[in-house]
Structures
1.
Amino acid sequence: MTVQDNSRYREVHARASRDPEGFWGEAAREIDWIERPAKIFDGSQGVYGRWFADGVCNTCYNALDRHVAGGRAAQVALIHDSPLTNTVTKFTYAQLLDEVKTLAAVMQDFGVVKGDRVIVYMPMVPEAVVAMLACARIGAVHSVVFGGFAAKELATRIDDASPKLILSASCGIEPGRIVKYKPLLDEAINLAKLKPQACVILQRPQETCSLMPGRDHDWAELRGNAMAAKKSAACVPVLATDPLYVLYTSGTTGIPKGVVRDNGGHLVALKWSMFNLYGIKPGEVFWCGSDIGWVVGHSYIIYGPLMHGATSIMYEGKPVGTPNAGAFWRVIAEHKAVALFTAPTAFRAIRKDDPNGEFIRKTDLSHFRTLFLAGERADPPTVEWAEQQLKVPVVDHWWQTETGWCIAGNPVGLGLLPVKHGSPTVPMPGYTVHVVDEAAKPLPPNTMGSIVIKLPMPPGCLPTLWNQDDRFREAYLTEFPGYYKTSDAGYLDDDGYVYVMGRTDDIINVAGHRLSTGGMEEVLASHPDVAECAVLGIKDALKGEVPCGFLVLKAGVTRPVTEVEKEVVALVRDRIGPVAAFKLAITVARLPKTRSGKILRGTIKKMADGDPWTMPATIEDPKALDEIGEALKGRV
Ligand code: COA
Ligand code: AMP
């Protein structure tokens, strides 16, 4: 590496590569183990080996009990700030522990034991954090489903995870509308083949719901009774390799992948990251502005900050409109957050509403040190604007649901490396990142290829997919033997900086949300009038990308095409959810294809994005592209 700096990064990364067991064994000393792991990595276990395989621990103990015992009982652990309900609620470590012990006991009363799955389908309320930690406490495996998904998506997850219990709420709140969760939950349970034994429902005052006798139970009532009876659940010892959670993420089909997270590796990696990557000291206030339904929310609203003894902010609001583009600065100033972690799209939204940063200048941000961005490519103009306005380092970092923590970033705690806009900087310790060609041969610097990670992955990364070792091998390990395939394309520069330019599969990234165009095509194709379709991500100034569907209608469909277009838009909202942001369907006479029948998605995308494009030599009929050009006029 030729970059000059005073960072300890190179020495630390080199040590982790040279002696991974020594490095992670040392990091594991930061965790309270019930039985310390004797073997740090066991290559003979699992699909590609397991970390800390004989260690015994409890994640909730490390997030709460150890801090209460260690002098942080009265420190605020969680601040729930909701401009949507005009409330700020704080929980000390002792209070949060009490809530968790109580809910964990309630769950045990329902017969939930170690290894059972519990689905958490909840909005951004503190009870959702309590629910996740309560699962961790008794060794149950939580699976959080994002509130913006529709009933069918929830049903798919219920069938895959077969939960004993579902924890949910009467409603979520989006600006200007109440999202009724209960009808979605009821429909999902109806659709699911495997029914949960019971549901515990948090009634929110903004919209209560009716409870189904026998199946549904009132959260507040159960909590009240359990508190009165002084019920409390102790931490259940689990193996480091036992699953802590399953989080579903978009795959290339409509069937999502259940990413498994273990207990031990996750504890060690996240605890390591809090200071070394994010530069946070215990006792400081950290704000991750994501949603608990995404991996970023799991790792850095809940587990990372709490394992570290920090104070975490949970925000039920938006970057703009709740009430204005100053919302983020208000939260940072009011709660004295030293760092914020959000998606670039949030900054694009703020910049659009407040281009000169007037709200920023009206707020005292003197204690604010670092902005972290992830979830999608951080476009250089947005990063530059944030740097100029905030006058603090802006750290782009790249990761995936599968890894659970950062693959490449700029480590604040180890000492920042020089920033290169457009790059999330360098691989974190434990990650050996290569860019390879189709034959898995490493490519020279500055050459685009597939980004892969040398096996084994570091602690914290997924060991497998839920009940699907074969799908895990097939999706991630087979194409490039010896490597994990990230499905991201990009390059490394001469200094070893990583550049992540886009996906190699049909995943698109809409406002930092990961979505499958294949899944949307399945929905479009199910419409009775649609003969053929293609969905692709097209550029969007705010959300980065938005989906755009092209429809070919069946012969004989005579009604106005706009009717069908409206219906498919509604169908995607109904089947996948509003989060898909599918608002544009365009009817064409045919889809441009190669002579072998492959839809020319890349060329269509370039046309829709207004990028230069050339006529593919393999095209079946060049006129089909002219027709696409015509159809796009006035629509994008
Ligand atoms: N429950 C129900 N519906 C939800 C929802 C939830 N939890 N979250 C989003 N939605 C809905 C929205 O209301 C919207 O519905 P609409 O089509 O009726 O307007 C739709 O899903 C799309 O939502 P979103 O992508 O959030 O767009 P938006 O226009 O409401 O807001 C931004 C745009 C940029 C402000 C917003 O996307 C944002 O804050 N992004 C940051 C994303 C982020 O932090 N990602 C985490 C990865 S690090
Ligand atoms: P998710 O699993 O939802 O976190 O989405 C992961 C995908 O988001 C990655 O595979 C990338 O395509 C994209 N992504 C996340 N962070 C970044 C980043 N910092 N730069 C570029 N792409 C990113």
2.
Amino acid sequence: MTRVIDSHTGGEPTRVIIEGGPDLGNGPLSQRARLLEDNYLEFCRAVLCEPRGYDGMVGALIVAPINEQCVTGVIFFNTSKNLGMCGHATLGLLVTLYHLGQISFGVYKIETPVGIVSAQLHDSNSASVINVESYRYKKNISLQVEKFGKVTGDIAWGGNWFFLVQNSLISVQTQNIGKLVNFTSAIRRALELQKITAPNGEPIDHVELYGKPNNKKAHSKNFVLCSSGDYDRSPCGTGCSAKLACLAEDGLWPENKEWVQESIIGSLYSTRYKWGSGHHIIPTITGSAFITSEATLKFNLLDPYRNGISF
Ligand code: PYC
């Protein structure tokens, strides 16, 4: 029996598995995450894919932490692979743990495969996460993108790897979502074909575009293509972290000053950073999350789509 609690953070869904996930042992979280992706991808896809979910959804498997100071360990995944960290899903996880009566308002440490993050639950629906140290790896990388021509951007780490495009050829506005998906997917293919990777050969599997905000409180509006191939409805916590790292490195935004990021659907995160070690920053992302359902997933052997729809 697999029991889940669904929430959304700024429109982006998180499905927390509270019972019935695979037993990954008690090794380091990075090892357990590898095991999940290598041996249980079918389970992950069954939980998140249509007809139960869709590619935009992120799963959060609760696991025992190694570090005893952590309230929980968690492995994030989407319909195609694991995520290192996930900002929106960490906010969703906090609200879910509160809903379950497992935490109250306050500050907690959470262990993820890419490090320990701190998080604060402010009230039943609002929370902050102090993300892993984030940094820009390379500036002004140009690539030839099929049908679009030359595109230039920065490569940065915010808990996942991002290619942040400086000037989007397509205006970052809701009515262009289809075109933005095509453009960013073509950029990701170009990164792959031109073998442009992160320092240890990791794929750069998130692409982020920027434009003028519609909301007067916001400094920018973004569009983020996720590694699942779908786009983030929220302003993307790890994407904001990567963006802040670039702004900080270019001297364009000072430490501790609020940067409000608007998402492609208009939801907002309040963000800020402090300098960490070397050229790394420590970002804080604040947003709101709401529980949408509690469910027991059924995997009927007679159901041809019990493991999700795949083409
Ligand atoms: O909020 O970090 C995030 C995120 C990554 C992918 C989807 N959301």
